[in-house]
Design goal:
The complex is a heterodimer. By secondary structure, chain A is an alpha+beta fold. In chain A, about 35% of the residues lie in helices and about 25% in strands. Chain B has a domain of about 120 residues: Dna Topoisomerase Vi A Subunit, Chain: A, domain 2 (3-Layer(aba) Sandwich). Chain B contains 8 helices and 6 strands. Chain B has a 4-stranded parallel sheet with strand order 4-3-5-6. Chain B starts with a helix and ends in a 7-residue tail after the last helix. Classes of the chains: A alpha+beta, B alpha/beta.
């Protein structure tokens, strides 16, 4: 039983009792943490709007005997105010939180996942950047962190690379792109393959600095399918906000 | 240990929100002790609320007997202003202010992509149909200041504004009686954004 400090991003919240909430956080040093924020739903709560989903906060938490910690203090590092004012950015942000919630392990720090999430939220909060490609880029990057990144430089089945073969489709079972001879799964356009390679090949910053490419929808569908196959779970956020 | 009817009562009471097994046991024994007519009054109230309470055919507030709710039946209410809320309990909160004289529309929830709640699970279609038919001029989005409702408000504004409705949202800021030093950055930032000029 002890107090500890950490930083974290609020992934989601659940109502608890009359005025409390359970807050699920992805923390820097303790992985996924579930904590009770007492009285947070009251208008005079000391936490105010600090513990809303997507908020990046600095916390003082009490770890007792139960699985649920208790939030003692919370200060905002970044509330991502611009994200909250724009529907497509809110939708993209929620998609990131849902995946981070699924990937994070309780009480098991994953600094790279944490930093990738904070980085992606910062990009979403930048009015100069287009939010459309951010969910797909985040899914692909986190798949790489999980050791499940797709093969995009050669055929995942026969191993032959361009220019010997032309990579034309993406297959989840093979784990990446396939050449014309081995092709199965979802067809992938040359433009989408190019962006896919840039995202996974270290040019993500440059890709996100440009307006979203025409193949964004295609890439998002591909990344969503790959992430759902990895998690063995149907993701809700991107699907339910698709028509908004 | 318990008789079958007592066990059944404890089990049923234990299914109520916020009631644990110990509280359920205490309530059940309390009901055993009180005069029969008191216990029957509670039973009758539960039966009546289930049998006679329905949703208002116009605004989806709670109503009695399959018709319209008290607000929608009141001819004195201003039909040009519609206040959109999440839940019938929010109507009670707004009515307590005594400052709103228009009509309501209960959405029966808020967009929650993380739980898979999209517009089709809410009474959005009915709202659009109502405001079009009833001569509404202003739609007040009376939303809880959280992420789900912010998203819902943005979505509704996107749907309603192109048709010429005035779409407004509740002001967001500091609670009366609170201390400025304890205000969080989001709330204080919004209070600053929504500041008003003082008349001398």
């Amino acid at each position: 039983m002890s107090l500890f400090r950490d930083q974290g991003v609020v992934l989601r919240t659940y109502r608890l009792g009359e005025a409390d909430r359970i807050v699920v956080l992805l923390t820097q040093g303790h992985g996924k943490v579930r904590a009770v924020a007492k009285g947070v739903r009251r208008t005079n709560s000391k936490f105010g709007g600090r513990l809303e989903p997507m908020s990046h906060v600095s916390l003082l938490l009490w770890q007792g005997r139960s699985d649920l910690d208790i939030v003692n203090q919370a200060e905002v590092i970044d509330a991502y105010r611009f994200v909250r004012q724009d529907l497509p950015r809110v939708s993209a942000g929620l998609a990131l939180l849902e995946v981070a919630d699924r990937l994070a392990q309780e009480r098991h720090a994953d600094r790279r996942l944490y930093e990738t999430l904070v980085g992606a939220l910062r990009v979403l909060d930048d009015p100069a950047r287009d939010p459309a490609l951010v969910p797909a880029a985040f899914f692909l990057k986190t798949l790489v962190l999980e050791g499940a990144g797709p093969v995009v430089t050669a055929c995942a089945s026969c191993g032959l690379a361009e220019p010997e073969v032309e990579l034309v489709s993406f297959d989840l079972l093979e784990g990446g792109m396939l050449c014309r001879r081995c092709r199965r799964g979802r067809p992938v356009s040359a433009g989408a393959l190019e962006v896919l390679r840039q995202v996974l090949g270290g040019s993500l910053g440059a890709v996100l600095a440009r307006p979203a490419p025409g193949c964004t929808e295609e890439l998002t569908a591909l990344a969503l399918e790959a992430m759902e196959a990895h998690l063995d779970h149907r993701l809700r956020a991107l699907r339910s906000v698709a028509g908004l | 240990m318990y008789t079958a009817p007592l066990r059944a009562l404890i089990d049923e009471l234990g299914r109520l929100p916020g009631v644990g097994p110990k509280s359920a046991q205490r309530m059940a024994f309390h009901l055993l002790r009180v005069p029969t007519e008191d216990a029957l009054r509670l039973a009758d109230a539960i039966v009546a609320v289930k049998e006679r309470t329905t949703l208002c055919t116009r605004c989806f507030n709670v109503a009695e007997g399959g018709g319209m709710c008290a607000v929608c039946s009141d001819e004195r209410r201003d039909v040009t202003v519609t206040c959109v809320v999440e839940d019938p309990r929010d109507i009670v909160a707004v009515e307590r202010t005594g400052q709103f004289k228009g009509r309501y529309h209960v959405l029966q929830g808020a967009l929650n992509p993380l739980e898979g709640v999209g517009p089709e699970q809410l009474r959005v279609k009915e709202l659009l149909q109502r405001v079009d038919e009833e001569g509404t001029e202003e739609v007040i989005l009376c939303t809880n200041p959280n992420l789900e409702w912010e998203a819902t408000a943005m979505y509704l504004a996107k749907l309603l504004t192109p048709f010429g409705f005035r779409v407004t949202k509740l002001a967001s800021g500091l609670p009366v009686g609170g201390d400025l030093e304890y205000a969080d950055e989001l709330t204080l930032g919004r209070a600053l954004e929504g500041r008003r000029e003082l008349d001398a």
